[in-house]
Amino acid sequence: MNALAALGEILVFIGTFFYFLSALGLIRMPDVYNRMQTSTKSATLGSLGVMIGVGIWALGEDFGSVAWLTKTIVISVFLLLTNPISAHTLIRAAYKSGIPLWEGSVMDKYREHIEAKAKEAETVGAPESETPEEGGEE
Amino acid sequence: MIGVNIYLALIAIATFLSMYRVFRGPTTVDRLVAVDIMTTITAGLMVLFALYYKRMIFLDVALVYAVLAFGGVIAFARYLEGGL
């Protein structure tokens, strides 16, 4: 009973420490892509630690039951699924609205992907644009 | 319940550092990233409050808050992308 509370307290401490690290990465990193990278990862891990830690900690207290652990696991699984989705969507919006990369960045895979896709669309789209013209001539 | 002040202090420091980025951020997406991190931290804070006040209803509040924050961030990102 007491060991469960101690284990949960350690997990909560690790989680809040990762919250602090994510906010530190938010103000230390040079551009928006690096900021999103560091903060989202460590905030997700911190949420996992805090929530599962609270569930285990409540098992060790006298008011707690298994429903605490179940609900916290549901919340943490939801956050684990949706945090990367929101980060991905936000950072794609940032890239498409034209925010430049940091000048120390050496690689831009997404632009290469977009350019390759545009080139592929040109080569595929050329014969497609010919066929309606032929149809129009007939 | 020994070190709960330490956890609340760490969460407060993290929230203040995020608020620095919200007020100071050069672009809109910087502010939005900081708000996203702050909503994640607030969900964790609600779960801690549920333990501190021994009320299980705060866990439901945290779940609904996480769902609504996710929807809001998705809507803002679609708006920035020009699709909304």
Descriptive key words:
heterodimer, A: 138 residues, mainly alpha, 4 helices, 84% helix, disordered C terminus, B: 84 residues, Helix Hairpins, 3 helices, flat
Concise account of the structure shown:
With 138 residues, chain A is mainly alpha-helical.
What number of structural domains do the residues of chain A give?
1
CATH architecture level-2 label of chain B: Orthogonal Bundle
Low-confidence stretches of chain B: none
Strand count, sense and barrel status of the largest sheet of chain B are: none
- In CATH's first tier, which class of chain B applies? Mainly Alpha
- Tell me the radius of gyration of chain B: 15 Å
Structural class of chain A: mainly alpha
How many strands, which pairing sense, and closed or not: the largest β-sheet of chain A? none
Give the integer mean of the pLDDT values of chain B: 89
Largest interface by Cβ-Cβ < 8 Å:
A-B, 51 and 46 residues
- Work out the strand percent of chain A: under 5%
Strand content of chain B: under 5%
Overall number of structural domains of chain B:
1
Shape of chain B: flat
Instruction: Report the helical percentage of chain A.
Output: over 70%
Order of helices and strands of chain B: HHH
Shape of chain A: elongated
State the end-to-end CA separation of chain B: 46 Å
Subcellular location (chain B): Cell membrane
GO molecular function, one term (chain B): sodium:proton antiporter activity
Protein name (chain B): Cation:proton antiporter
Keywords (chain B): Cell membrane, Membrane, Transmembrane, Transmembrane helix, Transport
